[in-house]
Amino acid sequence: MVSLKDIAKACNVSPATVSKALNDQSDVSEETKALVCSVAKKMGYFPNSMARALKTNRTNNIGVLFVDEARSGLTHDYFSYVLDSFKRGAEAKGYDITFINSDKSNPNRMTYLEHCKYRGFDGALIACVDFYDPEISELVNSGLPVITIDHAFFGHSAVLSDNVRGMRDLVTFVVNNGHRRIAYIHGLPSAVTNSRLSSFYKTMDDFGISVPDEYIREAPYRDTKIAALETEKLLELDVPPTCIFYPDDFSCFGGVNVIKEKGLRIPEDISIVGYDGIRIGRHIEPQLTTLRQDTASIGLTAAEKLIDRIEHPRTTIEEQTMIEGTVFAGKTVKNLKA
Amino acid sequence: MVSLKDIAKACNVSPATVSKALNDQSDVSEETKALVCSVAKKMGYFPNSMARALKTNRTNNIGVLFVDEARSGLTHDYFSYVLDSFKRGAEAKGYDITFINSDKSNPNRMTYLEHCKYRGFDGALIACVDFYDPEISELVNSGLPVITIDHAFFGHSAVLSDNVRGMRDLVTFVVNNGHRRIAYIHGLPSAVTNSRLSSFYKTMDDFGISVPDEYIREAPYRDTKIAALETEKLLELDVPPTCIFYPDDFSCFGGVNVIKEKGLRIPEDISIVGYDGIRIGRHIEPQLTTLRQDTASIGLTAAEKLIDRIEHPRTTIEEQTMIEGTVFAGKTVKNLKA
DNA sequence: TAGAGTTACGAAAACGATTTCGTTGCATAT
DNA sequence: ATATGCAACGAAATCGTTTTCGTAACTCTA
Asked: How far is Cα B265 from Cα B272, in angstroms, rounded to an integer?
């Protein structure tokens, strides 16, 4: 590895001058700068990020915390897209991304915060985690610039998919297609679930439609089996719904299976809607009607806000940014008015 | 941040001794070790990875190169699972993972190798890239420990999904179900495609079945549109196949759509098989018959081999490791013998 | 011509760890 | 009593940068 010293020798100046020249500081003559830069390029010089970080306390590196229950968020349709756009956004601004370890079974592991300090991350992205984990609070309140996705800690930046509006739009779409008997199999309790569920009730109420209790059921996100089970129960009701909402697109397919097994057709006999807008949903017939979350915007916004925080520390309270999704009409909702 | 010095002061010893004590070296008394360790814990000490890396030339950090054409490999069903298990394997051995920048549009970007040097990665994982990119060769031949997935550079470690055997097993399964007229829509040329295609021909030949040229078609991986188009052409042949192989599970759904549009049933009228074993394929009816690649093993093996390379540099030529997949029977292949 | 101001550069400390090479003190062998 | 060996520790250099501060040379003004 060629270092500052090597260039200094080659140019007959001091390492200090080389450093200043390369960083384009003012107290170096233009000629020297030109000389140093050309020699540096010729010798294939690249700074050593560790040495620089040691001195400047800046690593240009962002920690990413992405932990699903069993698996990591990497294989999660929604979050992998968010991470992908976050990565693009960060790279565009010269930041690298490294994962914060999540293997909780390791006996001499570090806490999330310890890991961040150890690596000297300039900031951290927190997504797809159990937000009630004390380690998360520790990290969020540590003073390190942090941004969370789909969960807001008071006084800290967050990027949120607009679930209230998303669910409202989705319900509105279905109601406008003439549906009145609408069931909702919602996900397990969480901030996201709460937003969607209350928005569901609220919107139905705004339309003057009452929701029978037996229309509201629960299934874990991305669980086709339980979604199928709950679908079955809904279909066996004396007055079954004409449309079923699912926790997400993935679990939705569990419902599809049961419906087809019973000899019912989608959407002629029963309508369904998912949530997320995962890629495969657009390539399967019938195309899934769903709320497509704007993952590109979510990830990019998170990157920009986090980096802004890092580069321009302020003292004001952080705001939350809502990212709107859009209803993807698909073909799984029948127009009852037609 | 509490440093070695702080602990040294608190313990009334030199920083050198503290370092040795924490690293469990032999020339420190047991009592001192105990004292230092307890004080370090009490003060919440954690080493500074940059300072350590600067001195030791080891970062315990692995670079990951994951570049799809337009999008990154993050959103790729197969590769995201591989990366996930790689991450687990690396974390278990105390390594972190950071992405090597892939945004080629950035004017003052570094090459992959430069980036690796800049960050001081101990090694790199290369997957899901254009292996003919000169920058990749530069990286592979730089002397940095490197492991590639699904592509073997001569003299370098690689982990390969056993496409030859996978395709053989898949063809055998289909033939054993009585099929003779088997078509194959293969992916665009690559090492992976070549392995599968030649194995397809070879296996068919072993069974004494000749393959008409018009049964062999091409479609990009994960492209439902073109797969649908090619499927249509196959179905319109005078003697259409009884079973169609697709580049992968995802593109397979493009075929499904066309088939259903034409009023044909799967598998009664036409059988189909995919490749990969993506998660959704198991949750959709009819369950997709496919070759399930062992992503867990691929990622884990890659991590272990790479880290072995890093920690035990040798001079011998590297070997390639084949990871076998398994046929997942599913329900999309009709048994013609029944 | 003396003083002030500016420009261009270098010496040296610092970041936080690791490591080499002494040095000291003590026990054991001769 | 002298030599030898070992155990336990510290001083100092080092990794590759950045940054502060000092200084030399030069220009300009009065």
From this structure: 11
